[in-house]
Specification:
Two copies of one chain form a homodimer.
Chain A (H helix, E strand, L loop, with lengths): L4 H19 L2 E7 L18 H8 L2 E3 L2 E2 L5 H10 L26 E2 L7 H7 L3 E6 L18 E4 L19 E4 L2 E5 L6 H16 L4 E6 L13 H4 L3 H23 L6 E7 L24 H4 L3 E4 L8 E3 L3 E2 L3 H8 L16 H4 L12 E5 L2 E6 L3 E8 L2 E8 L15 H18 L15 E2 L27
Parallel strand pairs in A: 1-9, 1-10, 2-12, 3-13, 5-6, 5-9
Antiparallel strand pairs in A: 2-11, 4-18, 6-7, 7-8, 10-11, 14-15, 15-16, 16-17
Chain lengths: 478, 478
């Protein structure tokens, strides 16, 4: 053998190394708060400029029928971590009698320690794992990201309106955490995206030579809309557009950093949102969908989703297969070598064939269920969506043909009674599994969440502490 | 022996522990960029609000006759690190023929590796050392803070106007470093003080149970004045006052964090500036002193200095003893147990007796010399200040009675020829030691700085990189 032995070695091991890398690509999951289906240029927005995210779509796959599992934040994020409908892990109601939709500072609930979360599964296969940004799955020490599979955490553990502000004057000061330690109270919100993004850059710089999972969950575009310059000045859509632009910039910087690190081709980048836009004159859009955040119409739960993995996911592709936030868990677990049968029961499915653009790849989901808190309100299959709710003994039924009426504007229940019956039966079966509080059904397949005794907020207002902003000024929440 | 054995142990070892702690107090040195003698309320400002710094003064010692060793940035900082006049460590001229006053991006010079810096001396005695903010003692990898005694570094290694901005369109993008790695280019300047301060808080949180040295060097109040809200809105002195207020907030937060960590009494906090204000209609003040940054009149080099060490430095005291930035090196080195005679020759002196408020404590300095680059322009003793310069063979002499004429307004050279002669002799002796470029004197006691071959800026403009701000907008430098 002549020549450079290093080159020879590379030739010999080239194939298996490449294959090992393909089995353990880096994963960057960018998760937006309250971004609607119509908020990105590549999804039709004409008021927001999103060149970097659009490029992500042009180089990857854009999903038209991707769903969050909930129209609000906390339950959706539980699904991301566990691959389950929120009810399966008891993340569909909090506080006294489960009356709160989401977790507030000092609430007792969190993910159960027995849950095997997505970052835990990746860690087991050698991934470095980091969470930056909004967690919202419990702010008690026992419930923080570092207790659920993340090597490190940097962020605000709940929503950016859960702070001292005019409408919440008695909230604890908003805590910024490094791992499990409060490093700042009431940080300047507009500046957080820059701090988050640089934290992400640092993680990529440090971990680029090993498989990593970066879960980057933004505070934008949730209210209040504190956005930094120069995004504010450049926006055509006021502060909302500025928040979208800030996310777009951040995404572009992450992509550029992956490029600089030479790992762009070996990194799966996922971009999605936890639920639809509030769309109440605040600049957001779920167009062309009906409904808002907090509702089970499509606008509340169908959200943008883009997946880019050069060489695996076809560039510039679009998929209308039914997929959801719950699919990341089994898809990524299977990719890194987990036997899905050995994992806790989950509702998502391995959708890698869809990501790969295989011609015959179809959604593995016969149905998708729309829960609001613990009320099952709707179901869809590939074509039809049934809204079926029972309030005060009154039954309400709407059927929409999503294939031809994505805006849920034309109820066709009367024309398709057999579809109504079939989907109603599917809903009732789901109610038996995960419950329905409106109907008094407990559910037989619910796993408990964790509940700590004597929960306390992470911070309390200290009149002697020099907060930059003792109270945020914007009177926006939601 | 009865009772709790832990308490008993504490009683037995109490004295020696307390004494060990007193020998190794934490040290926080807050260093402002271009803050003038008249910029703090406790030094007479009526336009800037500085409640936290004023409290620092009320709880410590305020110095009226404290000097930087240079009216510009880089040389002053070399003194802080080495205890020397800049010329002694060849930090009085840079670039081709030493024509630059300060270091610019990509310059070849840095501190010589043989210099035993202040953080190195502290490290040798078990201190954790961190530098946050502006370094300005060389941006080449070999010259960074982490090569000169700091365990960690987070900051911009030179001035905040050395960036892409209208007046410097070809500058490299401003680099933010973590240790020796560029983690961001062209960061939002207004937000940096918050990021710096939280970084300081994290350091205190992490190291509060061991002796630490935190050297926190702000970007404010140097131009350009990018300042964050809410300081801008609250300022009575436009952006300059806002920058001062931001520093004051940051100082208050550091103090609060020391208090929360329970180490307030065991921490020396020093607050001072690298040189006087530019004072060119930009809001700064050297009142009541004459002269500006870049000049050897008092306003260029006499700066605010406050030292607080509860229980050691008398609260609310004022010292008019002549001290300087060069004194920190021997004072702190002696405090932690170094034999000063074993250290490299330096110009500062141990002024602990002054800090302690000992009644008979007098300045150890017979003279203080005012160098501009490598030109020795003036000298003072306890009462008199002589300006003696020779330009194009012409000798210029001014003598001021600082005890009665702090504003250097009334030249009394003619009335005191013997003082002129005595001080001129002292100056000539200093010129023999450290040189005088105007007079062609090389100096016999100069130690070399380090000079790397093929220096390069840390960054270069990349048209494909999504900077938040490809160019800063404010056209301010200086």
């Amino acid at each position: 053998m002549s020549g450079n032995p290093l080159i020879a070695l590379t030739l010999v091991f080239g194939v298996s190394l490449a294959s090992a890398r393909a089995d353990h690509p880096n994963i960057v999951l960018i998760y937006i708060d309250d971004m609607g289906y119509g908020d990105l240029a590549c999804y039709g927005s004409e008021v927001n400029d999103t060149p970097h995210v659009d490029r992500l779509a042009a180089e990857g796959m854009r999903f038209t029928d991707f769903y969050s599992s909930s129209p609000v934040c906390t339950p959706a994020r539980a699904s991301l971590m566990t691959g389950c409908y929120p009810g399966r892990v008891s993340f569909d109601g909090f506080g006294p009698e489960g009356r709160s939709w989401v977790l507030f500072p000092g609430f007792a609930e969190g993910l159960h320690p027995d849950e095997r979360t997505l970052p835990e599964l990746l860690k087991e296969k050698g991934y470095a794992t980091a969470h930056i940004g909004k967690w919202h799955l419990g702010d008690q020490p026992e419930h923080l990201p570092t207790r659920h599979g993340f090597d490190s955490y940097y962020g605000v553990p709940y929503s950016n309106d859960m702070a001292i502000m005019p409408r919440r004057p008695k909230s604890p000061p908003m805590p910024l955490l490094r791992n499990e330690r409060v490093i700042q109270e009431q940080p300047t919100q507009a500046a957080l995206i820059e701090r988050y993004t640089v934290e992400a850059v640092e993680f990529i710089q440090q971990k680029h030579d090993q498989p990593f999972f970066l879960y980057f969950a933004h505070l934008h575009v949730h209210l209040p809309h504190y956005v930094m310059e120069p995004f504010t000045s450049a926006s055509r859509n006021e502060r909302y557009g500025a928040a979208v632009a800030a996310i777009d910039w951040s995404t572009g910087l992450i992509l550029a950093e992956l490029r600089r690190a030479g790992i762009e081709d070996n990194t799966i980048v996922i971009f999605t949102s936890d639920n639809g836009s509030r769309q109440r004159g605040e600049g957001g859009s779920n167009a062309p969908l009906r409904g808002l955040k907090g509702q089970t119409f499509e606008g509340g739960m169908r959200v943008p989703c883009i997946v880019r993995w050069p060489g695996v996911v076809p560039a510039g592709s679009v998929s209308s297969e039914l997929t959801s936030v719950m699919d990341f868990y089994p898809t990524l677990a299977a990719l890194v070598g987990h036997d899905l049968a050995s994992l806790p029961k989950h509702d998502g499915a391995d959708v890698m064939p869809i990501w790969q653009g295989q011609e015959d790849a179809r959604s593995p989901h016969e149905h998708f269920f729309y829960y609001l808190r613990n009320e099952l309100q709707a179901v869809r299959d590939h074509r039809w969506k049934l809204h079926h709710q029972v309030k005060a003994g009154e039954e309400s039924v709407q059927l929409y043909d999503l294939a031809n009426d994505v805006s849920e504007s034309n109820c066709v229940a009367d024309q398709h009674p057999e579809v109504v019956q079939r989907l109603k039966a599917a809903m009732n079966e789901m109610r038996e599994q995960l419950g329905d509080s409106r109907l008094g059904i407990k559910g037989t397949q619910r796993r408990p969440c964790a509940v700590v005794k004597d929960p306390r907020p992470l911070t309390e207002f200290d009149p002697d502490y020099p907060y930059i902003e003792p109270s945020y000024l914007l009177d926006e929440a939601g």
